Amino acid sequence: VSQQLKEEIRLGFAGLEDPLAGLLDILESSSDWKGKGHSLGYCIATELQLWIKEHPAVQQSGIKLKKLQARVLGILAQCPANLLDPLISIYQLHTADRNYLLGHVSHLYHKGDYKEAAILSIKLKLQPDQDVEKMCTPLLLQDKTNLVEDYVGEYPELQSKLLQILDTWCEPGFNIRDITRQYQGLSRYKPEKLNRKTLSKLVFRLLDQFNVDPALCPNVINQRHLRTLNYLFYKRFVEKTMTEENWTDHVQSTVGENQWLQGHLAQLLMSHCDLNTAARWAQRWALPKEMLPYGVAGELQNLQIQERVEEAPKAESYDERKKNNYYQLPIPRANIHFLQTWEETLQCWDKVLQPGQVVGIDMEWKPSFGTVGKPRVSLLQLALKDEVFLLDLPRLLEQAEAEGQKEKLPHFIKMLYSDAAITKLGYGMLGDLNSLAATCSALKDTEEQVQGVVDLLRVDKQKVDVPSPEQSYENRGFKQPEKGLSLLVQHVLGKPLDKTEQLSNWEKRPLREEQILYAATDAYCLLEIYERLCKDPTSFGLSSDLTESLVGKPSTKPRAKKQLNKQEAPSPSGQQCKGSQKETSCPSTPITPKEFSVVCDNMLQGLGRYLRCLGVDVRMLENEDDHRKAAEIARQEGRVILTSGLPYQTLQSQVAEGMCFSVNCSEKAKEQALQVLKHFNVQVSLADIFSRCQ
């Protein structure tokens, strides 16, 4: 606003007997203020707000003020949002009769102006005296979730009420149409937004956002646990990639004493096991007899009370097969140190923080099984040439906080990542750093400070002249081909990693011996891969100067468009070299379909098939899969998630920046594919088409 205009406005106020009434006359007779942006009406209102502070005598009170307040309420329902605060302040609406204000908002509501009623309620802080279900339901039907969040944002009691209401709508047998039917004439009416699946996701996001006790929402929690149970049975009995110990641990922690889940567990046992096996598991978990199907209950009566020792020779042959088929840790067990106290970590830092040191870094966390938010690190592994340190991060952070020194451990971790003279090896390091930041707020800016990192995920992305993974998996007892780091270990070192402990409960203490060996192996193998690649990079299709291919910021993820495609990055020796970055949303250097790997959400299976035809490395969720599985696959295998709609909001928070892309679901597969290829600068040649098995 020009200074001249301000002066003219102020001269106008000074010449009026009642400037407050004068402003209302202007607004009521002008159509200019109804548009968006800073209208003349807005400029006059904000200038009057300042002028009143300098001339408090013009303020009105009593009956005169009440008449002005009645007039301004009629304007508030129509005016743009930026005029609300100045008008509420000028006419002291917070001092108006509360019942009068509530009546006015109720009038707006019954006219069908639900959005305006909610916004005015928020501005005047009327929510505690209103019915949260009545106010929020039409907003949800109009897909105004953000406004609903604002409505309950400052009131924990209303947050809890809202979540309880939404959970009630998710109750089995509840007919959501009973709620939606009365709003059928609503403009921008979207009843599909209130289906049980969408509501469940909304509840979990709000539980996390408002930090509300999940026990308030038993229906959505039970449904989520049931999906987890189904997933665990799939991993154990169909895919056969989860050990019995891990499976048992997760099933027990998922079901607990919940009788509803116990009943479903009994049914799942019947579906996947014979009667005898189902009865043994029922006995082991002490499932109530009344929960068991008739056949299982009968079999349980026939079982002996004592436990049998089961098939020890089988376990021995399995261990022997593991040694033959999988990469083995080449250092003695005594050189793996599990550290739980600050004093124990001092020996670790003395050895790790040495100039010229090469450190393999990995992290483990409890599988989320769809939990909202980023995972919290349970174990930090640091591997040196002769030993591996396993840091019990939750215990160490808890101890440091109890001693009033909670910055101590983050300080050393930052020192490690920011020292260009120490080479840090990882696989998908950006995801690990995001999880570290979620675990400890003091580590949030670590990603910006990293130097001297080597992210071996780049080798997987380049995939040039590596040996074919298509070997006889049946002979090695595998059900599925290797992927991720395991596949890289197989390419470079000859044998894959044994990933059976990957889905362990890493929060449970003490860790089992298998978990300790798995964690140490995951970090140590990075050292051997790096050594082998440094000796002979060209045989793996890499630059003869390995640093050009690998050294840089810890990411191969697509980044914000404004970021440079190539950047100066320190080498392990501390010198500067140019890192080959594939980090922009639309990189200047195009990539081939073979270098591009994605996981398609289940509403984009047509897109997935189309991209696969073009040679892209595609994994697709099945119709019955939960969207959370996409985030799990993306984190494990370094894939970009392709999704659409509401799942995008959930999934993008669970993976690194740029690793989740929202596709327009209303377009055909071809247009969607063109959108994806253009965004990630994937250039398709004739040789790429049908280059992958369909």
UniProtKB/TrEMBL annotation:
CDD domains: mut-7_like_exo. The keyword Hydrolase applies. Keywords: Exonuclease, Hydrolase, Nuclease. Residues 336-538 form the 3'-5' exonuclease domain. One of its GO terms (biological process) is nucleobase-containing compound metabolic process. Residues 545-589 are annotated as: Disordered. One of its GO terms (molecular function) is 3'-5' exonuclease activity. This is MUT7 Exonuclease. The gene is Exd3_1.
